[in-house]
């Protein structure tokens, strides 16, 4: 009988989950101060170097354990498949670009709102996943349906549901994921 072993199969995704867990613990231990300083993007001065850091790092911070767990479940479900198909470099680039775009959009469009969490990355991964069977000259029906349902839901919730969820970040993440999925599959 062959021995089974645990493998570190998706270094970027697993690293992201582990670092986010550490950020969550630090946020808990500092009563929210670590998120406020490093892992929450908001309309702070462009003269502060931390403003630029937070444009990227806000995807690591979460408002609470349920927020963290729900995002990490999707990332652990979708991320390893995407990392295996596209490679670690592509996945880290998607995470960084998604963080930057969502952070900038929040800074520009919602000056009174703080943004933290990996939801934008989750939605980037969801849209990227719908492109995994993409072939040149074809548009999979699944891509069209995911885009319509996803964007429709986010627009509806953004207009008619009063909650603490950034639908803008979801839409930005979805756009980044769709562009990345299309581009990466076109290269392949």
CATH architecture: Up-down Bundle
The number of helical elements comes to 8
Q: How far is the first residue's CA from the last residue's CA?
A: 38 Å
What is the count of structural domains? 1
Number of strands: 0
Overall pLDDT metric: 88
Biggest sheet, in brief?
none
Q: Structural class, please? A: mainly alpha
Strand-and-helix sequence, N→C? HHHHHHHH
Walk me through what this model shows.
The chain has 188 residues and is mainly α. The protein has a single domain, classed as Up-down Bundle (Rhomboid-like fold). The protein contains eight helices and no strands. It has helices spanning 11-29, 33-38, 49-57, 65-86, 88-109, 119-130, 141-160, 167-187. Helix 4 (65-86) packs parallel to helix 6 and helix 7 packs antiparallel against helix 8 (167-187). It is globular.
Task: Write a brief caption for the model.
The chain is mainly α and 188 residues long. It has helices at 11-29, 33-38, 49-57, 65-86, 88-109, 119-130, 141-160, 167-187. It starts with 10 loop residues before the first helix and ends with a helix.
Label this structure with key terms.
Rhomboid-like fold; 188 residues
Task: Note the topology.
Elements (H helix, E strand, L loop, with lengths): L10 H19 L3 H6 L10 H9 L7 H22 L1 H22 L9 H12 L10 H20 L6 H21 L1
Helix pairs in contact: 1-4, 3-5, 4-5, 4-6, 5-8, 6-8, 7-8
């Amino acid at each position: 009988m062959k021995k089974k072993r645990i493998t570190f199969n998706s270094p970027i995704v697993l690293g992201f989950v582990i670092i986010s867990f550490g950020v969550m613990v630090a946020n808990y231990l500092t009563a929210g101060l670590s998120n406020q300083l490093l892992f929450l993007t908001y309309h702070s001065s462009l003269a502060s170097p931390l403003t630029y850091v937070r444009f990227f790092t806000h995807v690591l911070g979460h408002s609470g354990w349920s927020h963290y767990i729900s995002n990490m479940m999707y990332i652990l479900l979708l991320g390893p498949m995407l990392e295996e198909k596209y490679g670690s470099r592509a996945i880290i680039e998607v995470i960084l670009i998604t963080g930057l775009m969502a952070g900038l959009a929040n800074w520009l469009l919602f000056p009174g709102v703080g943004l933290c969490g990996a939801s934008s990355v989750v939605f980037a991964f969801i849209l990227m996943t719908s492109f995994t069977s993409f072939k040149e000259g074809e548009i999979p029906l699944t891509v069209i349906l995911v885009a319509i349902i996803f964007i429709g839901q986010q627009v509806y919730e953004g207009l008619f549901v009063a909650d603490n969820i950034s639908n803008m970040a979801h839409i930005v993440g979805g756009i980044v994921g769709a562009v990345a999925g299309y581009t990466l599959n076109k290269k392949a």
